[in-house]
Design goal:
GO terms for molecular function: anthocyanidin 3-O-glucosyltransferase activity; quercetin 3-O-glucosyltransferase activity; quercetin 7-O-glucosyltransferase activity. This protein is of the alpha/beta class. Helices cover 37% and strands 13% of the residues. It has an eight-stranded mixed β-sheet, with helices on both faces. Strand 13, helix 13 (394-404) and strand 14 form a beta-alpha-beta unit. It starts with 10 loop residues before the first strand and ends with a helix.
């Protein structure tokens, strides 16, 4: 193919929001592009560099990750500013100052009359203004969608008013869309619900989905065999090119990077000592619990999970990332005495090396908030999940896990808005050794095999990446 004989240096600039879950899929896309002979740089804001240095993900002299060059630009705020305190203001600043500073960065590193040729820009949906910067510089721009194609289809139809969705008059209406199962209110992304306050993220998505024609390509961190009905349903509206799963190579069964790590960055220090403990456990025996970096559970919910894990009498790893600011109501805190009571049963970590944990044969199931990166990793690793979605795309992902992929169960809250210890215990028993466990495990293994085929030579995602590379070279 054309990419085998690349003579002129062709440069691709990836631009990502400064979040670990947004940067890592971009870096993994960058790795694929590097193997095709392209030159790849990832640009993000200075706060990401600050966090990576703090976690030792990069050294002060680092300017690359696994061959992908790194560039940083200012979002207009100081490093000390609390970006979580006022998300709307933060997103406004990123759009206003980030676009100016990114444009200046492009002028500096890719001068029009210089030797470097900037052929393509790829951004993700949380920095939508990048496509306008690309157009100003006369560079084609593709969008890397980092959630399921199914969610992309829902947003596209919602923001372009192609189908009816719940309203204040009919807040409980169900939604039937092509290529998707019947969606109840509890299955929809929170941003399309009438109860959701209009803020920076819904406005951002509205802008993205009403301006899709600005992009030359919509790439997706998924694979055809996983979401073929949803992908096919978008073919006449907004073609979606799945190039995933963009996950760590070690989970895919490939050799690790030369540096001993997968392509990606960590924003927090992981407790790698857990792997030694994990290696001593029986195969498919360990319950892994993690709700990502943003979720802070109420004290009652923490108590329910703690009691369920203790009563399950199975080994566990529970990742409990402390909130940046301690909560007076006890949110996010372990119940008193839990560590002492379970010291011989499991581990509680402040942050885990999730790539290594999920690749370990001791894992039996994953209780997750249904972040798409984590779910894709479980799909590639080949074990069931217990879904506890919180907001944004997570309810829809939980629906996919249960009713489309058939590889997990969903926790249900009681009338007080808490998932009881009995509900958690029931789901653990059902997934680990209940009547449905063999079918769940079988479905999980089937998708594991299909994911491996998709990214291998001749697979659907491998072909799509090559198609994109050929378009870059021809641009």
């Amino acid at each position: 193919m054309a990419s085998k004989n690349v003579k002129q240096e062709i440069h691709v600039l990836l631009v990502a929001f400064s979040s670990q879950g947004h940067m890592n899929p971009m870096l993994r896309l960058g790795k694929y592009l590097l193997t095709k002979g392209l030159h790849v740089t990832l640009a993000t804001t200075e706060i990401a560099r600050h966090r990576m240095l703090k976690s030792s993900a990069i050294s002060p002299t680092s300017n690359s990750v696994s061959g992908v060059q790194l560039l940083f630009f200012s979002d207009g705020l100081s490093l000390e500013y609390d970006r979580k305190a006022n998300l709307d203001y933060y997103m406004e600043c990123v759009g206003k100052f980030g676009s100016i500073n990114l444009s200046n960065l492009i002028k500096e590193h890719y001068p029009v009359n210089g030797q470097k040729r900037l052929s393509y820009i790829v951004n993700n949906p949380f920095v939508p203004w990048v496509v306008d910067v690309a157009n100003e510089h006369g560079v084609p721009c593709a969008l890397l969608w980092i959630q399921p194609c199914s969610v992309h289809a829902i947003y596209y139809r919602f923001y372009n008013k192609l189908n009816p969705f719940p309203t204040l008059i009919d807040p409980e209406m169900s939604v039937q869309l092509p290529g998707l199962p019947l969606l109840l209110t509890e299955d929809l992304p929170s941003f399309v619900l009438p109860s959701n306050p209009f803020g920076s993220i819904p406005k951002l998505f509205s802008d993205v989905f009403q301006n899709m024609k600005k992009y030359t390509r919509i790439l997706g961190n998924s694979f055809y065999e996983l979401e073929k009905d949803a992908i096919n349903s978008m073919s006449d509206l907004c073609p979606f090119l799945p190039i995933g799963p963009l996950v760590p190579t070690s989970i895919l069964g490939e050799e690790e990077e030369e540096e001993g790590q997968d392509t990606g960055v960590e924003m927090w220090k992981a407790e790698n000592s857990c792997i030694e403990w994990l290696n001593k456990q029986e195969p498919s025996s360990v319950i892994y619990v993690s709700f990502g970096s943003l979720v802070v559970l109420a004290a009652k919910q923490m108590q329910s999970i703690a009691t369920a894990l203790r009563n399950a009498r199975r080994p566990f790893i529970w990742v409990v990332k402390q909130p940046d600011t301690p909560r007076p109501d006890g949110s996010g805190q372990l119940p008193t005495g839990f560590l002492e009571e379970t010291k011989d049963q499991g581990l509680v970590l402040s942050w885990s090396p999730q790539t290594k944990v999920l690749a370990n044969v001791a894992l039996g199931c994953f209780i997750t908030h249904c972040g798409w990166n984590s779910v894709l990793e479980t799909i590639v690793a080949g074990f069931p999940v217990i879904a506890y979605p919180q907001w944004t795309d997570q309810p829809t992902i939980a629906k996919l896990i249960v009713d489309v992929f058939g590889k997990g169960l969903r926790l249900r809250e009681n009338k007080d808005g808490v998932v009881s210890e009995q509900e958690i215990e029931h789901c653990i028993r059902e997934v680990m050794d209940g009547p449905r466990s063999e079918q769940l495990k079988s479905n999980a293994m089937a998708f594991k095999r299909e994911a491996a085929v998709a990214v291998a030579s001749g697979g659907s995602s491998a072909w799509n990446i090559q198609l994109f590379v050929d378009e870059i070279i021809a641009s």
